[in-house]
Amino acid sequence: MSRFFATGSDSESEESSSGDEITSKAPGTNFKQSLLLSDDEEDTKRVVRSAKDKRFEELTNLIKTIRNAMKIRDMSKCLEEFEQLCRAFLKSKNIVDKEGVPQFYIRLLADLEDYLNQLWEDKEGKKKMNKNNAKALSTLRQKIRKYNRDFETEIAAYKENPQESADEEEEKEQEDSGSSSESEDDGGEEVSAKSFLKKKPEGPSEASKFLKGAKGSGDESSSSDDDDDDDEDWGGDTEESGSESSDDEEGKSKSLATAFLKKAGTDKGSIKKVEKKKKQKKERAGELQEGEGDDEDGPWEKVKGGVPLVKEKPKMFAKGTEINIPVVVKKLNEILQARGKKGTDRAAQIELLHALAIIAGENNLGQGILVKIKFNIIASLYDYNPNLAAFMKADMWKKCLDCIDELLDILFENNNIFIGENIAEDSENLNISDQQPFRVRGCVLTLVERMDEEFTKIMQNTDPHSQEYVDNLKDEGRVCGIIDRLLSYLENKGSTEEICRVYLRRIMHTYYKFDYKAHRRSLGLQGETKSEQDQEESEGEDSAVIMDRLCKFIYAKDRTDRIRTCAILCHIYHHALHSRWYQARDLMLMSHLQDNIQHADPPVQILYNRTMVQLGICAFRQGMIKDAHNALLDIQSSGRAKELLGQGLLMRNMQERNAEQEKIEKRRQVPFHMHINLELLECVYLVSAMLLEIPYMAAHEFDARRRMISKQFHHQLRVGERQPLLGPPESMREHVVAASKAMKMGDWRTCHSFIINEKMNSKVWDLFPETQRVREMLVRKIQEESLRTYLFTYSSVYDSISMQTLSEMFELEIPTVHSIISKMIINEELMASLDQPTQTVVMHRTEPTSLQNMALQLAEKLGSLVENNERIFDLKQGVYGGYFNRDQKGGYQQKQPYQRDQKGGYQQKQGGYQRGGYRNQNQSNY
Amino acid sequence: MATRKESSSSPSAPMASTGGTLDSPVKQIQIEGLVVLKIIKHYQEEGQGSEVVQGVLLGLVVEDRLEITNCFPFPQHTEDDADFDEVQYQMEMMRSLRHVNIDHLHVGWYQSTFYGSFVSRALLDSQFSYQHAIEESVVLIYDPIKTAQGSLSLKAYRLTPKLMEICKEKDFTPEGLKKASVGFENMFEEVPIVIKNSHLISVLLWDLEDKSTVSDKHELLNLSSSNHLEKSLQLLMDRVDDLNQDIVKYNTYSRNLSKQQQQKHQYLQRRQQENVQRQSRGEPPLPEEDLTKLFKPPLPPPRMDTLLIAGQVNNYCQNVKEFTSQNLGKLFMAEALQGHN
């Protein structure tokens, strides 16, 4: 009976505007505060209900006035009101969409049309009308005809339905008698209430356990009051299912009315939520309260223990219902059906699922059902954010982590649970009694992957310089923990594919982290206390070993190209990060990734770029300047390193991409803690470019065709030159430029002081794990390259130079100097010979003077000038006759080598002074 | 100095295409020593490096001889006085000079040069406007670097009448230049210069020369050459580059032109065939169409700049040639001296 009363109050609230409603509710709410469902929800519900009512009230009021106007035959008023009504109806479209067109509205439309037709037929009456009225009548008639076309079916249905029309007549009588003050809606509702009354007893069987439960609970006098409200709360969902099934049984004549009534009843729940959205303020307030409510929930349940939980059961299931697996599954499905629908309150859904889980746990329904519910809780947590861009709130995130942890706990404890995506809903086995293992549909791996993505999203959306970021980052440990647990779970149970996927996740969380433990251990071999070593060793295997194991498994077993590619890249990155240059390089070369990476999807390309950069930095640390330069060239030369590494968007692209693209690009960004320091990157690049370019420039000073090794480096040099006033260097770039200038003069000491000093240490060099070693390498390189530069630049000044002096000048050992000079002589970069007894370098003085160089350049230019001129001449002749032209050209070309020969001869006479560049060029000409 | 004047005024370059023979109103230029000194002084004070100084020449025409008796410099421009009125200044200057009884007739202008790079569009334009307004006017080019090497370098140039005509019509197309048969050799004519001093000044100079030490004249014998040559070569190279570019431009132009000619030809042929067919069918021939609209000829690149560059290159070459021949002579002399010792 309580159920009955509950619905009664429901319709009551619809009728009355607000006042008595509150009073009728008041006791209920008081009780509820002591219950699981906080009264906040109740509050919002009430607000919402009245909001919905407001729309309908508006409509009914308008209808009332129209009816009045109809009675006094005031057509112009009628028209006016009708237009208003249409507008009001449009406004309440949202609600109408939900529930269908309200019956009273249809009724009015039908009546109005009939009425107008009557008037239209009544010629005499028409004559009597004044002009305005007559005009209004004709317009209104046209309008309603047009308008009613949209509602044809409803109106037809209404006209066929005798009961409704009877009610209608009744109503009319009432109105005629003068009691028009009462809204017809009231009448309608009364009728509906009546039919409802009638209906309920008719189909008690189908109105389900629910009703039974309600009755049952009614008997339980102790909590009957609470139950009223609770029933009502959950009524929305249950009633829906109940009514749907009951429809079939009831007479067709009533079906329409009942359907409508049901809808009105059931929709309240969902409409509330729609309304909520509209009133954002309220919603926010509501949410806040809900949040608080949630917080209160957790601890509260625990404190109360079993007793209050028993009381809660009726929220889902009426009191006394035997809670068994099918019931719970059914309930679960009910809840899930609302998922993804427009009006579903996602927070409430999560709550419901939680409650369900607790109930299931309470009733010892077995782990199978619990796992299933957990799956759904996590899924709805993910669903909480409607769009892909938004990230999880902190509390949701925590909840999600907890849930997954619990789920894994269950899975670990119970070996007999089979989960899989491919298990169909039908073949699930949740029964506890069976000896068979549980079979549950769902995939932990997907959930964990999703969780990982959510984590990335959270990190992407947090300000990296805030404490919040650090706090969020602390969760990484948990994420890794979960992945580790899943990994060990899947290693036993999962398919190879799944293992590959989870391995990749693990790799993704490992590859960018520098393994300080292993690093220290490797250093420790040289002389740290043994106890410490032992302690460290016991802590776990090296990340290198893990990476190796995981990656090799993927290489062997993976069938999707993408996972393997990612694994390779991560593996290389990890190698490079730990200065295992040769392994990293070999892996990169063997994988042939460079050939086809441009076909990969952007995230993989970003990973590739990161790997290349790391590889370059690694090469630099190992002193392989050329390799470092080559690896970094692609990324640095574009000037878009930031974008290519997924570490930020470039502003200048704003016009080129629209908002949509920007969103996509934002999603690709690498979280801050994985960033590669861009300044370090640029510095490494510039320094390696400097070490390559400066000697090269010195060697090819007069070469007209010399090519730049690094455009970017030259750009920096030019920027430096353009400075009107040269102060002491401030930024990293200025340091490098200043160092380059010093190196050009062969002044390695100044160069060294510019590259390695306090400022640069703090900015760049200290970021390397083996700072000292890198710096030593760098000094050595600077010395060597400065020596080379010095020899290139000033060899023309010397007749001979003692190696001893050079060794002192550049603080290099004599053998090193010897080897550098020998190399230069072999490469024909330096025209000199070594005099062994005196340990001197004897210059051959074959370098052309600058004037000679200039003359050579001029000769070259004149050559091209003549060539161009000849071409014009050819063209001129070509207009008149092509035949001669060709002949002449041939002749000219034959002449050409002769000239060149002469030039070559001249050069040869000079004694092979020309450098590689010239020679090559000559060869290419032949 | 007076002894050196004749050597500098001898027309050595083909740039001056036999100054006197043309029907030019000026056959000789006579410069007062004062003007030379004033020009030198002006450069010393204001010009540095590649900066150029300019000024106005005053004097009068006597028969076919232009006598330059005085000059004054143009003030250096600075950004501050953008509204400075040059013409006003010149008129003012001339009026003032007239008051002190100095020749005040405008007969041309002078300009310093940097390694002989003066053949430019700006010079052409201003000399054209001078010569347009005052028929007899000349431009004096003063080369301070050569002068510093020991021999005064002062040259007077005028535009040839042919070039004047072209400039007047502003027809710089290849065809126009071809018709006028103007090459880089005959753009400018050099007018012989005579430096004339009053007898009193000559006497003073003789006196001074006796007193001057030998070391004052040593700069003439300086053997170092590479610096000057390098600089000249550098400039020459730049010009050659420019010339190269221009040639390439012209090349594309002529290629485009011939391509279009071909298209036009084809079009005409097709049309003719069609007309023949129509005639045989008894239909009226196709209406005439404006071919120039259908085939717009490509814009020919102006050739004047190329000419100027060529002239400049020629000028550099002459300079280098002159310089090297002098230097070779000096070197041989030095060798002989060395051997003698």
UniProtKB/TrEMBL annotation, chain B:
This protein's GO CC annotations: eukaryotic 43S preinitiation complex; eukaryotic 48S preinitiation complex; eukaryotic translation initiation factor 3 complex
Principal subcellular localisation of the protein: cytoplasm
Domain MPN: 29-163
Region (Disordered): 1-22, 271-299
Comp. bias (Low complexity): 8-17
Keywords associated with the record: Cytoplasm, Initiation factor, Protein biosynthesis
PROSITE patterns: MPN
GO molecular function, one term: metallopeptidase activity
Keyword Cytoplasm: yes
A single GO BP: heart development
Subunit structure: Component of the eukaryotic translation initiation factor 3 (eIF-3) complex, which is composed of 13 subunits: EIF3A, EIF3B, EIF3C, EIF3D, EIF3E, EIF3F, EIF3G, EIF3H, EIF3I, EIF3J, EIF3K, EIF3L and EIF3M.
Family to which this protein belongs: Belongs to the eIF-3 subunit H family.
Task of the protein: Component of the eukaryotic translation initiation factor 3 (eIF-3) complex, which is required for several steps in the initiation of protein synthesis. The eIF-3 complex associates with the 40S ribosome and facilitates the recruitment of eIF-1, eIF-1A, eIF-2:GTP:methionyl-tRNAi and eIF-5 to form the 43S pre-initiation complex (43S PIC). The eIF-3 complex stimulates mRNA recruitment to the 43S PIC and scanning of the mRNA for AUG recognition. Component of the eukaryotic translation initiation factor 3 (eIF-3) complex, which is involved in protein synthesis of a specialized repertoire of mRNAs and, together with other initiation factors, stimulates binding of mRNA and methionyl-tRNAi to the 40S ribosome. The eIF-3 complex specifically targets and initiates translation of a subset of mRNAs involved in cell proliferation.
Protein name: Eukaryotic translation initiation factor 3 subunit H
Organism, as annotated: Fundulus heteroclitus (Killifish)
Gene name tied to this protein: EIF3H
